[in-house]
Amino acid sequence: MQIEDYALIGDGESAALVGRNGSVDWLAWPRFDSEACFAALLGDERHGFWRIDSEDARPTSRRYREGSLVIEHDFEGRDGASFRIIDFMEPRQGDPKLVRQVVGLNGRSQLRLLLRPRFDYGAVKPWLQMRESGALRAVAGPHSVILRSPCPLQIDDGDLATTFSVEAGETLSFVLSYDPSHVYTPEPCDPEAALARTLSYWRKWGAKNRYDGPWPQAVNRSLITIKALIYAPTGGIIAAPTTSLPEQIGGARNWDYRFCWLRDASFSMLSLMNAGYRKEAEAWCEWVLRAVAGEPDEIQPVYGLAGERRVEEREIGWLPGYEGSAPVRIGNAAAGQFQIDAFGWILDTMHQARTFKLDLREDSWALETALLKQLERVWREPDEGIWEVRGEPRHFVHSKVMAWVAFDRAVRAVEEFGQPGPVERWRALRDEIHAEVCARGYDEQVGAFVQSYGDDALDASVLLIPLVGFLPAEDPRMVSTVAAIQDRLTRGGLVLRYDPKQADDGLAGEEGVFLACSFWLADNLLLQGRRAEAQALFERLLKLCNDVGLLAEEYEPKAGRQLGNFPQAFSHFAIIDTAFNLARQKSAARPEEPRDSESAPDEPADQQA
């Protein structure tokens, strides 16, 4: 199946992908970053899955229950008999559970169930045992899963299987739960009560959404997706629930995104606040402060779900990769990179938190000033940049812009919020960086801000320049930059991060268009007064979502398919931000317009009508 053939279910601590064919092909338990027990997504049926289907039925439609993360798939047989599979994971209360209900719609359907748990990303076949209660337990090392079924199950070489029938009006529920193998505590659950609680949870949460614009379904689905990617115990927001879904089919640009990136910090907080989710925004800000606490020279671009620093990258050779896209990677070496932009994202996040009057720890400013001292020492150095290139460090323009952001927000913390600090020094550094970026980051011959100093390669990260307030979108240099990107950094009218053929990133192969960058282009067009173009691009991007409203990281226009880890938080944050921008006809990406703009500052999003 293609990446977009999957739908997401989750419980706030882990997630699964369910295919159109009724197969759960990805599930990492008990956390997003745990060893998967279903990994067929990155291999084949040998590597674990849970399928419920019928030999003579075909999938006809699917949908999320309105306002929820409960997915329904409908199937119809050749004889006209039909049935529905309802899949969900109840928001975590005790033991994690995945519930699958089979509902007869018409006639009598003959179905089959095959559960093949394979722990450690498909490498380990478990020991299966029947419990006195009739439940079947699969155990391997520290892990175990327990299946409770209304039908008798057979054990066959590490698999659990059964055939059964369902008639119109009948519902059969199958419950898979996880527990550490050294204990056995899962109690049977009432599937109907669990479904009711799950629907109530999501609908109550979604009712807080205060978006009032032309694209409510897209915004609501994006917000639900983001909520599903929040690790509830800590408030950390993962980039995606998957690893190693390729940026090029058959290529090696395959990364583990089940971690939390600082570059997402400001986008995350602002999207949540604009939509009215203050609690989640505050939890995310607190996560950021905890994650970066420590020595300022040890700041990382990416951390684990609770702020863990060690997320070492390794390759697992027994998985062939999605459609042969190897290697499959676990962990992410970007944690060891030096990225100057991280300082800017942290300071901007805290600035926005103060603007929105969020509750922060009293010592947050002390931590920020310590980070600023470190940035004073390192901002002139080359780094690996926002896209985490694996080539030689360079003076990336975006990194320098974000250094400017850090000092700008520090100055404003003093001027607008009365925080103590060496404001004159910070103001001088801000001006120095601004002058340097304008002198060395803009190439007159290219007619654009470029990827790095002394380079003529384009990079879509410079589309953030107006969004963070470095220059107004109407500045002639930004107008020409946008034109250059539209002319030379697009594929099928959508934006690449950069062209790997032109800008060496230390990796082989190519990648698809980067969807978040295409939304940034729409934001720039809107800020330049080109509303019709911005809206047309935004609506085209929405059409790239799959039938249940989910977007991956990238897209391949020629093949017409999604690429990269799925669903991707960055893409869904971009949907939310651009939808707010278009609905308000002004920037909702920041509570204020760029400082050099002639327009008056907007009010904070939580004060706007």
Care to describe what's here?
A hairpin with a 4-residue loop joins strand 28 and strand 29. The two termini are 44 Å apart. Helix content is 31%, strand content 21%. By secondary structure, the protein is α+β, with helices and mostly antiparallel strands. Strands 1, 2, 3, 4, 5, 10, 14 and 15 form an eight-stranded antiparallel β-sheet that branches. Strands 6-7-8-9-16-13-12-11 form an eight-stranded antiparallel β-sheet. A three-stranded antiparallel β-sheet has the order 27-28-29. Residues 585-589 and 591-609 have low confidence and may be disordered.
The poorly predicted ranges are 585-589, 591-609
**Can you name the CATH architecture of the largest domain?**
Alpha/alpha barrel
Q: What integer is the average pLDDT?
A: 93
Give a quick account of the main beta sheet: strands, pairing sense, barrel closure: 8 strands, antiparallel
> Tally the helices: what do you get?
14
Number of strands: 29
Assess the beta-strand content as a share of residues: 15-25%
User: In percent, how helical is the residue content?
Assistant: 25-40%
CATH fold category name of the largest domain = Glycosyltransferase
User: What is the C-alpha radius of gyration, as a whole number of Å?
Assistant: 25 Å
Structural class: alpha+beta
Distance between the termini: 44 Å
Shape: globular
**Domains counted in the coordinates: how many?**
2
The CATH class of the largest domain is Mainly Alpha
